[in-house]
Amino acid sequence: MPPSFAIRRASVADLDLVFRLHVDSVQAHCGSHYDEAQMQAWFAERSGENYRSAVEQGALWIAESEGEPVGFTEFFPGLISMLFVRGTSSGRGWGRRLLNFAITGASAGSADPIRLESTLNAEAFYRHNGFEALGPGHLSRPGGVLLPTILMVHRR
Q1: DSSP assignment, residue 15?
Q2: Helix or strand or coil: residue 141?
Q3: What count of other Cβ atoms lies within 10 Å of the Cβ of residue 31?
Q4: What is the DSSP track for 58-84?
Q5: What radius of gyration do the chain's Cα atoms show?
């Protein structure tokens, strides 16, 4: 019997949990595509409070398997702004299931294609799930550190 899987709306009580999931995912998956300075800057001056606005807007969701958090996503109409899976939860299909949930949610209230900004390591995952690359992007971090990304779109 496959393990249970559920996605629930995040609450303010989950802010630190989401931060820990985010850090875990980046550390587990991104190191092969970003240098040490970029990895160090990724969460500089950040905490669970950075997710408060998304939680208050009802845009942040946590995926759980057997009651344990395995990842999270944040989306708005036409935009998936974050999707991260815990390192030890990779390769089990949770990311795909979370992405399908986010695509459905981001589709509500928008007829436009769904946009996202992929980390370099996740580009193949998104391509495999129907997204196409539009071109390079980047996220800015403290100290002027840039994290290269790939702007992508899913045309429904």
Answers
A1: H
A2: strand
A3: 13
A4: T-EEEEEETTEEEEEEEEETTEEEEEE
A5: 15
Distances in whole angstroms, Cα of residue 123 to Cα of each of 74, 85, 116, 144: 18, 14, 11, 24
Query: Sheet holding 79-85: strands in order across?
Result: 5-9, 60-65, 68-76, 79-85, 114-119, 145-154, 132-141
d(CA 76, CA 102): 9
- The torsion angles phi and psi of 131, rounded to 5 degrees, stand at -95, 150
pLDDT in tens, 112-150: 999 999 999 999 999 999 999 999 999 999 999 999 999
The letter for the amino acid at 22 is H
d(CA 50, CA 15) in angstroms, rounded, equals 8
CB neighbours of 108 closer than 8 A, spacing ≥ 6? 77
Q: pLDDT tens-digit profile of 24-61? A: 999 999 999 999 999 999 999 999 999 999 999 999 99
The strand ranges marked E within 16-143 are 60-65, 68-76, 79-85, 114-119, 132-141
CATH number 3.40.50.740 given to 5-112: no
